[in-house]
Every structure is written in structure tokens, then in C-alpha cells.
Amino acid sequence: MAALAGVSRPTVTGWERTEKDFPAPRRSNGQDFFRWSEVAHWLDRRLVPPGRLVDGEPAGTSYGDRARKRAAGTAPASDTATRRGAARPYRVPTGTVDEPGSESLRVVAALMGDLVDRVRGAASVLDYLNLLLCLHFLRGAAPERFGSLAHRARVLRTLDEAGELLKDIGRTTDEDMRGIGVHSSMQQALERLEPRTARDLGKVVEAIGGLTEDVFGLILDEYERQATLGSGEFFTPRAVVRLMTRLTCSAFEPEEPLSVYDPYARDGGFLIEASAFCASGTRGRGHGGVTRTYGETRRADTWRLATMNLLLHGVPPSLDLKRTPPWQDSSGRASAEKFDVVLSNPPFNMTDPGREERSEGQWAFGAPPVDNDNFAWVQHCLARLRAGGRAGIIMPNKAGNSSHKADRAIRANLVERGCVECVIALPAQMFTGTSVPVSVWILRPATDPCENTLFLNARHMGAKNGPRRTLSPADVESILSAYKARTSTDPALLGDQQAPDGIAVPGAVVSRADLRRSDYSLNPLDHVARHSDEKADAALELATARKQLHAAEEHLHHVQESLARRPLDTHHRAPSSAAGRPVPMAELASVCEIQAGPSYSKLGKKHRTADGTVPVVFPRHLKDRRITDEADERVTQDTARRLGAFELHDQDIVCVRSGAITQPALVQPAQTGWLMSPNVIRLRIAERHAGRILPEYLFHYLCLDETVAWMQDRAAATAAPSLRSESLGSLRIPLPDLAEQHQTVTALNDLDALDRAHRAVAACVRRTRTALADTLLAPRTRLATHHTPAHDRPHKETP
To answer: Phi first, then psi: what are they for 319, rounded to 5°?
Structure first.
């Protein structure tokens, strides 16, 4: 840094000691390092004193300007060299950031706010995310080129200039990627973007330039969510990557160089983490060793993203794009080469349609069923292991105890040949887009068998982070400690096995004979007792359920007593009806303001955000004549103010506009200010009729079966069920005097209150029953736990 900035080393040391905002070193896997972009950004705020300017430096030059100029002039690989495919200078591999700083989180949140729509225009959100990934990639991999683009972004004036800048950002990324043999089409994607103003694009580039650390993972998380990737494409949580890497790579001697293979590389996370772990000195190797990595991907977009990710973390990208499953490819590199470590998160339950029996591939442990590739991936990973190697693979829990004949036969062969070293049950909801519970399987080749299998139950670990559950670094360490405690030959550690409730992660070492008796189940839940935290949670749930049941019963009793003092007379008729006087009728449009929801262009999916604070009401929220409190669709306060004409007030009536027509709902006081969606209609008593008709009377009339049938009949007249405001306005409503309306409302509200009280008791009874059954009937014992020392590593010991 001192050389690039043109200052002495003591000057840099002084900056580091005295300047509070001097960039802090990042620590990854025991290694301290500085980000070039952080240092350059900090130097940008320090101008070179006039007396220290060198020839050619104008007044106002910053140390950041000087550092970038010198870096461009001394870089081992120039832009031209990169375009010609010259070798890229790789730094020491670094792992991913587990917990990004608050500033980085703030910047990414801002980038994923209003700027999304302001920059993308008619393009897709994925095109916008590609812009973020390109800028972040260039910022880390080609800082001098990013600096040039960032300077242009600061002085943008017109949309034409913005379009040229987008084109050049994509072109620069494509050139850098093609220089290492990766076909990239980012220029084409970025040219589809249509910024509203040049300043909007400038804000995006400025925000990326101001990041203080690697947030590629955060952007990938958003990419995954926006792309609505299925189980075949979601990325592996970084904590799980860290756990699996340490479990497998730690089995080798510290000085031994490793080769790592991922047959389904996704974002390249396993290759990055293995390289960083082996280079960090954690295994005592120092920084001299270079892990040899190789991966395969199935999609062109994730191939490009994984390559960018690898480059940003100092890992030479060695990825192949494959269109067929690896066991169908006999000519590829992976089919012939063996590896020390195989790490993968393959797609779950992928089908192989159109074949009655599986004929392709060589299956050492038995042919998998044709409709499920889970055990095809397991066998492929084992086939690529060299003698003494280790494999870590993520599998759905149901693969561990599937009753399918082929699955059971493969599990039996895996167990009998000593290939299953450890199975760890992970918490639920760890992956975007799927709630499938999964486990980590640690495997070893049949040439290096184990006599027992360790099962660990980590289901209770982690914390909710939005819709997903995440493992903290402390959680990962707890799982690793439990693994070491139960596989070590150290008597001090083996003592912990005698008191499994004292270990943060309960486990069991199960013999081959016991696995036979369990029908070769490899599901940890069939072998490990519940954790003490889970038992405590069950007891707390039962106590809470009983308390709520008591409260619900008390409320029901109170409602029943109130109704007993006010008997319901179902044969009562109001004076106007009893006297034979006709009840006046009026069209709904004459007594109500009928307002359809906003158009989709004003309140579509792109306008809703998880960060919003104002709920939006959709037809699915209309249940049992009320609006539910789910509030799973929200908009920002700014959007709500812009759509103020469509907000809801207390005692408004909400009807379904498009979709299945059901009973309407009455807005409650706490729901005032919520917004209508495009799929509903709002009814509000007109001010001139406020003393003539009660909102609740009108609501109860609209809930009549025959009224709902009338609305369904009008909606069915269209190709898709849709109730027009004009049609609804023609509905004729009887308008008795206010005394009769009050009597009707009171009687029906009383019965509604009684109905809700009974429903609440029934729901509490079901919850209490479930909690009590879980406490009384949950298995208290599992298969016998054999605390057999792990004498299954003849040539090395796990640290």
C-alpha cells in the first residue's frame, strides 16, 4: 500500500494508529487481509499536499488517484494481456464472509430498494442483479478498470451516457471473463436496462464502490430469491459449506496437498471454502500449499456467477458446463480423475422420466430407482474418491430411511462396506424455496471402511433470519466439537459420550449390527434421542397450550353468559315488517361508494417488498368474514401515500373482485390504513346516507348465501371470474328503519362472537392435544448407543 500511495511505511503505520476510519483487516480462516477497494476508497478522501505532488499530478490529486494509477502501471496482467488470455495473478484464497457488517447490509438493502425499478425499467430484476454482480466483480477483480467506470458514473449527465456506461460495464466484464475461457453475455443483459435518469445509475455504481467488504454472497442470496430457483438450483448456506469443508478436509495430514471436486458447483462455495481453509494455516500448512479444485455446473448463468465468485476469492476457476448428469458422461475429466475430497449439494429427488429401468452408469452399490437420483449422486461422489479420501454430500432426510427396495439395498451395501462415517441432521428451513429437511452425509471409500456410524442431531440449532434458519459460527463449532468428541480416541473426550445431554449436539455411535436391525436407516432421528432443548421446548409448548385453552374456555363462558341475559328470538320481526308495510329497496351504488382496487401497473408485484410496513389485502386474506392478520404482502409508506385513494377505513366492506367469489369481510379498526390489492373492491357508506344505513347491516346482508350466489353469477359471465363495479352496484338492498337494522346487527354479531369463541376453544384443544401427545408419546429411547472408539482410521487420526 505504501508503495502504491507513494508514501513511506511509517506514514501508513501512523494512519492505521491515529485514523479511526482506517480500513480494518478482514479475518478469514485465521488470516488477516485488507480489501484493495476499501483501501482505495479510504485514500480517495485524503488529498496529496501541494508540496508532495509529483510531476504530472494536478492540484486536488488524492492518494487514491495515485494508488490506482500506479496499480494500473504495475499490475502483472494488464487489460490487454487479460483479453489475450494471459494468466491472472491469484492471491491467497480467502473464505466467504459469514456475518457482513451493518454498513454492507445497509448498502445492499438500498441497492435492492427503489433503485431496482428506477434502473431496470422494462428489463427483469435478474438483469439488474447482473449489473450489481458485474460491478462487484470488477471492483474486486479489476479495481483499476472499476475505478475508471466509477469516475464516468460520477459525471453522468444524460441517458445516452448512461446507456454507454452500461454497455461498457458489461463489455468489460465479458472481456475479463473470456480472458479465462468463460463465455459471458453480460453486455447483452445490461443493455436491456432502462434507467429513468443518469443519476439513478450513478447511485448504483457509487454504492458498490462504497462497500467495505465482499458482499457477493448477499447479492447471490437476492439473486436466488428473485430467480425463484427450485431445489435443483438454490445455493448452499455458507455456514453449511464451512461445516462440511472442515469435516472432510480435517481428516488429512496438515502438509498433504488436497484436490477437491464438486460435481454440482452452484455458486462455487465449496471450492472457495476448501481452498481458503487449506491455505489459511488452520491445518498447520502455512500459506504455501495450493489446493487443486475442479467443479461442474448445469446452468450457464450459475456457471458465470460461480466463476466470478471464485476469482473474487483468489481461487483459479476450473469449472466445466455440463448438460448431462456426470454418471452419463464417460469422456469428461471427472470420470477419470480421483480426488481427495468431494463436496456437493446435488439437486434433491431429480427425476429421470421416460425409462422403465435405469441402465446407464456403473453402480458399485446397486442401481438407483429410475424416479430418484439421490443415490446416483452418492455413488458418483464415492466413485470419484481416491483411497483414503472423504466426501461430504447434502441429502434429504427421507433418503436415509426410504422404504423403496432399491434405496434400501444401496443403503445396506453402503453400511456393510463401511462407507458411511457420519450423518448430521440439520435444522429445517435452511434453504430458499424448499422446506425439505436435510442431513449432511460424510462418506469414505470402501477401501478405507469404518465399523460404526456416528449420528448427530442438530435440528434444534440455528436462528430464524427472515424466512430461513441460519447456523451461527458458534453452532458450527458445537457440531464440530460433538463430532470430534465421539470419534476421537482421546479418553478425555470419550468421557463426554457418557453424558450426551451435556453435549450441545446429541449423538449416537451406532454399530453395523444395530444398523442392520434398523433396516439400515441412515436418518439420525431414528438413532438419536431428542436434545434437552427440544424436551424443554415441548414442555413449554404444552404449558402455553394449556394456558391458552383455559383463557379460551373462560372467554367462551363469558360470551355464553352475556347471550343468556339477551335471548335470541329468531321469530322476532321489526315493527315495519309486522305492520305489513313494505321495506324500501335501494341499489347498492346509490348508498355506497364503490371503489375497485388499483391497477396492476400501480400496485403490482414489483411494488411490494418484504421491507414494507403497510399491508395489502388480497382475496386470500378474506376468511370467515374477516380480513386475516397475515399481512404477508406489504408496501412502503411512500407507496401507500401515493395510493391513498385505495386505503381502507374502519367498517369498510371488502369484496372479491377477481378470482373465486366468497363472503366479503368487514375492516376492523386496527386495519385502518391498509391498502386494497387490484383483486378486491371496497364498499364505503356514502356520507349522505350515513344516518340511513348501518355498515354492519349492509355487511351481514352481503354475507347471505343468496347474495354471494348473486355475485358469483355476475362474475361467472366473464371468461375468468371477475366482478365489475357496475354489476355489483346494481344489487338491490332492503333498507328497513334503523331500529330494525340495529336489532339485526346485534343478533348476528352475538352469534358471530359465540362462533368465534367456540372456534378458539377448538383450536386450543387441538394445540393442547398435539403438545401433550408430543410429550407423552415421543420416543424416550433409541437404538442402543455403542460408545466404540473410532479405530477406523488406520493411517491417520482426525484432529
So the answer is: -125, 140
